[in-house]
UniProtKB/TrEMBL annotation, chain B:
Belongs to the binding-protein-dependent transport system permease family. LivHM subfamily. This is Branched-chain amino acid ABC transporter permease. It comes from Baekduia soli. The keyword Zinc does not apply. It is found in: Cell membrane. Coiled coil: none annotated. The keyword Membrane applies. Pfam families: BPD_transp_2. InterPro entries: ABC_transp_permease, BCAA_transport_permease.
């Protein structure tokens, strides 16, 4: 809830420019905020990301050079919404922007939420790294809506980056995965969020390039009781595959059930937005057989030794398998700490840390070796194709995305 | 407005109906039917399918709408927590099946027995909850300004939603006891599914029983009297508080039944299902004429059909689609309200 801001006593009437002018925090204790949806269907996923972030900080002993790093986990969701909420998101971003000790912000989990927090943190000049945003428009104009991405950066300078490949890559991977599984006519549905609608657009663009017929592309009402009429229409369109661009919180389980009932042989595809326990543990045996999910997290065996170590440490420390995005939480924290380290003595200077982040090249990480490009995007591009068995996500194959 | 109780349809007879009133009363339903017939001519099978899906979905809205309309008819209060009472009905049902260990593999006789038992418990649970809500949040405010119980109603709604969130934080699957989406038979290329039959088989007897109870029993008479004029009813020796309690109980029973049908029909339950369902059902009650029982039922069915037609993506070649459905539903509601503020079948509440 948004009570956090009021409780910390900072006056919201104080203009944000006061915090943006001070480049240096002038302190030896720096704060990194995390903002994720800790309520709703994404809760398990978010907690797993928080664990990943904490592990990465602990691996450095909680310190970078002479600076002690404090970690604060915020919640960008509300119980009433059951998912991320615009009000809660901007409250989190303001809290971080107004805290003089803030050096970095890890979040949001959802692209639509980041579209709200990026401008706030951009004006305050705080480095923001998302563990999971995939919407292309946040960083790139290609395949994005009009005005994107510049409208997110009112200061004119870039302050945001991400460690997960963006959706122009996932879109291409989705289409490859669909074609590999014999799809000839695909129907696209999306949940109308920045992430879901953007991804469906990217899938449609990739389908054109790779020669997959798209027979329909519509939004859906995430609050509907069921999708039986929608499923009948999709069935009548002659589609043999259906793709849902969206997140679990937007009624994905109900949608998949109704689609499967109407078209038992059709293959159903989901993106990373449903690659979480709250989705795949609820499908049931029959539906599992026709469900395909693209997921940026690969089989642990395919990661470098440091990555494999992460999966072992995580399980030993928390007693469960990490959710799909835990390793990206680990790396988001890891790359932020690296940026602070690379800034050297100016590690407490917000702009110096941002500059250092955009200069990161050939970083050896748990995900493999990668660089941050001028947009703030990772140079990694491998996507995983996953199946579901007995309520668990099972790695199927690596999809080498063929982007145009 | 003419004076009328929650069921009596103008038995006293209005003095002389103006032609304009008659046109108003019949033009809108006729227009809605004509709109559907046009779509039927355009696409027969698709429309029949939509009507079927819409009517069976609509039975759930109708059961919930009854709770709104009963309570409004008698205390002129919108019970905003009613959607949550329905949600709790779903949660109780699914939890009970889990406790009893009933699932798809259970034998048919035992399964039917479990459905009947769970239906009874879920209805009682929701009914009791509704009575408690009335006792805690509405009765102390009986003589307070109108806004006060409105706010406590919204408050109760949020509290119950949070109870649901604690109970089951993520959507859960209900056991598919009735083989929800399997076809019983096909008629005119439209598959009649188990869930369609189930929804009707449970709803119709409940509706008949409710109408009989209110129309033919002493308690029903007391309810109608209280709805018309609570003060006069009290003077006649009717225990008004008890009667209001009974009204909340009946509304809750219907919501509990709707909760069970919803769980088996859709197969997924979640803590915020009551919010949307409540809004839709409230719309149905207003569209039919708030306070009017038949209006609530028919309003629920109408909204179900509108939703199904809009969801299926096309109306007379115009592109619609699931993303527009809420806008279409409320667009029709606004149209009905503008031309007939008292709802399609007339408001039946106490005299101004």
């Amino acid at each position: 809830m948004s009570f956090g801001v009021a409780a910390c006593g900072s006056s919201s009437s104080g203009s944000q420019s006061s915090s943006s002018s001070s480049g240096s925090t002038g302190s030896s204790t720096l704060t990194i905020y995390s903002s994720l949806p800790l309520q709703g269907d994404s809760r398990a996923q978010s907690l797993s990301v928080v664990n990943g972030e904490k592990l990465a900080l602990a691996a450095k002993g909680g310190k970078v050079g002479n600076f002690t790093i404090k970690y604060v986990s915020l919640d960008d969701s509300t119980a009433a919404a059951g998912k991320w909420d615009p009000g809660a998101t901007s409250a989190d971003a303001r809290k971080a922007a107004q805290d003089k000790s803030t050096i970095g912000y890890l979040g949001e989990f959802n692209s639509g939420a980041s579209a709200i927090s990026i401008p706030i943190l951009n004006e305050a000049g705080v480095l923001q790294v998302s563990p999971s945003n995939t919407a292309t428009g946040l960083t790139r104009s290609l395949g994005a809506d009009k005005g994107e991405p510049d409208k997110y950066y009112p200061s004119g300078k870039r302050t945001y980056g991400r460690v997960v490949p963006a959706d122009h890559i996932q879109g291409a991977a989705q289409v490859s995965y669909q074609k590999d599984n014999g799809c000839t006519k695909s129907y696209l549905l999306n949940d109308k969020e920045v992430y879901g609608a953007g991804l469906a657009k990217n899938v449609a663009a990739a389908a054109k390039v790779q020669g997959l017929t798209i027979v329909g592309n519509t939004g859906m009402d995430p609050k509907a009781a069921n999708y039986r009429s929608v499923a009948q229409t999709i069935k009548a369109s002659g589609a043999d595959c259906v793709f849902f661009g969206g997140i679990t919180d937007n009624n994905a389980v109900q949608l998949f059930k109704d689609l499967h009932a109407a078209m038992p042989t059709a293959k159903l595809f989901g993106p990373d937005g449903v690659a979480e326990t709250a989705f795949f543990s609820k499908l049931g045996a029959s539906l599992e057989k026709v469900t395909y999910i693209t997921n940026p997290t690969l089989d642990p065996k395919l990661y470098p030794p440091a990555g494999q170590e992460f999966f072992k440490t995580y399980k030993a420390k928390f007693g469960t398998e990490p959710e799909a995005y835990a390793i990206y939480g680990y790396e988001a924290m890891g790359v932020m700490l690296q940026a602070i380290q690379n800034a050297g003595a100016k590690g407490n200077d917000r702009q110096a840390v941002i500059d250092a982040f955009f200069k990161i090249k050939d970083r050896d990480s748990v995900l493999g070796k990668y660089s941050i490009d001028e947009n703030g995007d990772t140079t990694l591009s491998d996507y995983g194709g996953d199946r579901v068995q007995n309520g668990k996500l099972v790695f199927d194959k690596v999809i080498k995305a063929q982007t145009s | 407005m003419e004076a009328a109780s929650i069921t009596e349809t103008a038995s006293a007879g209005p003095p002389a109906r103006k032609l304009g009133d008659v046109i108003n009363a019949y033009a809108l339903p006729a227009l809605l039917i004509a709109a559907l017939v046009a779509q039927f001519v355009y696409d027969q099978t698709g429309t029949l399918n939509d009507i079927k899906t819409g009517l069976s979905n609509g039975t759930i809205w109708a059961l919930i709408a009854l709770g709104y309309t009963l309570v409004y008819g008698i205390v002129e209060l919108i019970n905003f927590a009613h959607g949550e009472v329905f949600m709790i009905g779903s949660f109780v049902s699914v939890s009970l099946w889990a406790t009893f260990g009933v699932d798809e593999r259970t034998g048919i006789p035992l399964m039917i027995l479990s459905i009947i038992v769970v239906l009874a418990i879920a209805m009682l649970a929701s009914g009791t909850l509704n009575v408690l809500i009335e006792r805690v949040a509405y009765r102390p405010l009986r003589n307070a300004p109108r806004l006060a119980p409105l706010i406590t109603a919204i408050g109760m709604s949020f509290i119950l939603q949070n109870v649901g969130l604690l109970w089951r934080p993520t959507p859960d699957s209900a056991p598919d006891l009735i083989g929800s989406q399997k076809d019983y038979f096909t008629i005119f290329h439209v598959g009649i599914e188990h869930s369609d039959v189930f929804a009707v088989v449970v709803t119709v007897p409940l509706l008949v029983a409710l109408l009989w109870f209110i129309g033919a029993t002493r308690y029903g008479k007391a309810m109608r009297a209280t709805a018309q004029d609570p003060d006069a009813a009290r003077l006649m020796g009717i225990d008004v508080d008890r009667t209001i309690q009974l009204t909340f109980l009946l509304g809750g029973l219907m919501a509990g039944a709707a909760g069970l049908i919803y769980a088996l029909y859709n197969g997924t339950i979640r803590f915020n299902q009551g919010f949307t369902a409540g809004l839709i059902a409230f719309t149905a009650a207003v569209m039919g004429g708030i306070g009017n029982l038949k209006g609530a039922v028919i309003g629920g069915l109408i909204i179900g059909v509108i939703q199904a037609v809009s969801d299926s993506g096309e109306y007379l070649g115009l592109p619609l689609g699931p993303q527009w459905t809420p806008a279409v539903v409320f667009g029709v509601l606004i149209m009905v309200m503008v031309f007939r503020p008292q709802g399609l079948f007339g408001e039946e509440t106490r005299e101004g």
